[in-house]
Design a protein that fits this description.
The chain is mainly beta. The structure holds alpha-L-arabinofuranose.
Length: 831
Amino acid sequence: MFRSSAILATAVSICVFATSSVKAQDVTVNIQGDKPGRSVNKNMYGIFLEEINHGVDGGLYGEMIANRAFEDSRPPEGFKKVGEKWISDAGWDSGFNAQPGSVPRWQLDQRGGKAEWWVVPVSGLNKNSPYHLRVNVTQPAGSGKATAVRNTGFWGVGFRKGASYKVVAHIRSTTGDVRNVRILGDDRYGNAVTSTLTGKSSGNGWTRIEGTITAKKTIDNALLTIELPTKGTVDIDYVSCFPVNTLNNRPNGLRSDIAKMIADMKPAFVRFPGGCVVEGGSPEMTYRWKDGIGPVEERYERWNAWNYRRTHGMGALEYLQFCEDLKAQPMWVGFAGQTCIYRNPQYVPLASMSWVIDDNIDFLQYAIGDPTSEWGSKRAEAGHIAPFANPLIEIGNENVGPEYETRYKMVYAQVHKLFPSLTTIADYNIPNAEFDLIDEHYYNSPSWFFSQFNFYDNYDRKQRPVYVGEVAVTTPEGGPDKGNMLAALSEGVFLMGCENNADVVKMVSYAPLLAHVNGRSGWHGMIMFDSLRTAGTVSYHLWKLFHTNRPDITIPTAVKSAGTTAKSIAGKVGVGTWLTSSEYKDITVVYGGKTVYDSNTNGFPGAKTEGGIWQTFGNVIRQTGNETGTYTFGDSSWTDYTLKLKARKISGDEGFLVVFGDRTGQRYWWNLGGWNNREHGIERNRGPIGQRVGGRIETGRWYDIEVSVASGVITCKLDGKVIHTVPVPETSDVYASSGYDTAKKEVVVKLVNSTSAPRNFGFSLSGLTGISNKATVTIIRSDDPQTNNSLLEPNKVVPAVSTITWPPSNGKITLGSNALAVIRFKARHTK
Ligand code: AHR
């Protein structure tokens, strides 16, 4: 199979390692250009832009004032107060905890005078923004001073020396006084850090004060201060401060430094607005795009699945405009009638689904409809007469079950009728439904991603292809900010596998994209920022390499390395339940040609329970609590065995868990009748191994179950029928993949060294001619797999580019520890 190539010629190696103790432990990479490859979707790499972690409000959206419309103490939509909490009808806690009348994100500084303030919940600037601030100055602050209300911004207001900022505020004098106001940035100690904008109220209604201030210094934790020098009562609403230099200098625009980091990734698509944000924790708090159109002061603010109120300042036009600016295809994720499954789901009654359907089709009309149509005309009024690029539409996010499926079909029917040419994405392989792609999400550990290089190799090609919409290492090994060197490398290995299976994986995006370092919603972001600074994690830089080095066609590539681990599985066995009561008997383990365990003679040695109510009745083991739990036993040295048992479901929602390979830090199980008793799937540490298969478990019936591991393959049988044959996940020490960039006529090779020592890569090429004598090599690596970038050290791990002689002169490239390399060289590809 493997032929060494004549092109392994003269001698130069590139040294991209830190230590000099390179072991001559060679890796051979066979780039087989004479074998057929797979076409790679030109829109493969995109971004998932969700309002989470204050990624949009307080981040990408340029607004610097937090709680600008004083709506933050307004209770969440669709929740009732129970004790101190706001709870949905299904019992989910919204996370809202502001007291009535309170003024989050603002401070009152009396500066020696006397004043009181509170939020009034009615008669704000307009009907969509009913709350406003009332300040009653009973004793002015005195000579040269003024009572001040000060906005703290999103963990500080950031000004850059010399930059200009557009300020807007609305005031209303309720005591008939003419209120002089001064608006400026201050350093928290009363020292001005910007020029001052002055204004006064006129008449009894709201007066808009608008102008520009310029920063005198760079400061990341300033306040925006409104000074009220005279006595009387004044109302304040909608206070805004934007950099004048937003992305493309658009009004109500985007923060240009964050936008640039996104643009540098050259995303081919933008999935928005969520995520869980779309589904919410009550039907009333689901994403309503119509909140986010029209004059920005009139946009309704709504409580968010991530425990803060979203302003919709970045609304439909702004999202679509951003896509256009990025030259990226929009991907609209629309609510499907089931609220978030992780937030005690609720369902829009089938008879009331028309608003859900309309919300989706109206958005599509807004985006691409004729400018004379009802919603297309609103886009035109907003200044974008031409339709935007055709979006993809995903109906629902992470929704499951028959309730979702029925609603999906209802939404799809109307969408397809009115917009038949749009690509539609479903949350999974919905039986008897129409869709073009399935959205799969993988949050897992570095070891899982490393072991899933071959994840899609055995994908059932008869199924619809996949959009891997959310991918990230989320376990502690990824570091506190996630996306460290180790996490990035493992994600890279998974992406190489996706590229190799480009006929299955059509699109992929990381999640979440953005995180304010002080505003995280319990999540990371590949782009981190505060009020002035930005930094990409190592994952950001590595994904950017994939975005910008996408081949058009894959080239089959074989790797031989001494360090590939054997494909075997060792560990104890066990049984389990997921929200089910079940019983098990006649359990045997056979390996090495011998029956090493038989429950009828050995009982349950070393049994350990985790969750559930387990009891043994003779040689039958039973879980009686309709709960989730496992019962494991046996010997952790058992390796590559056949486990057989009989199982019967007594009651409950799902089916059985059959545990194998259970040892410290690792547990496999076969989940039968999982996912609402709709599918069977193998998992390791709850991460999927191979694809799930449709199937259910009936109550009251004994099933024969068999799990065997042999010759690197896991085989699962139910009543004698093979349900899965999946390769044992293999963790290798090195990985390689290749493809061809047809426009640049370049071969693109990706290599990963996941070990802590440098490795020598030798190459053999076939089916390629006219090979150039130079190659560019881009390497991202670190001695320490835990290393990450930060706001203080944003460039600790970034890619380094060099040019080398190609083929490498001594036939080898030495790649340092914990490294990913992208090698590009010119060649003609004959296949
Ligand atoms: O990316 C963060 C969240 O993870 C998304 O909102 C959701 O789709 C998933 O559960």
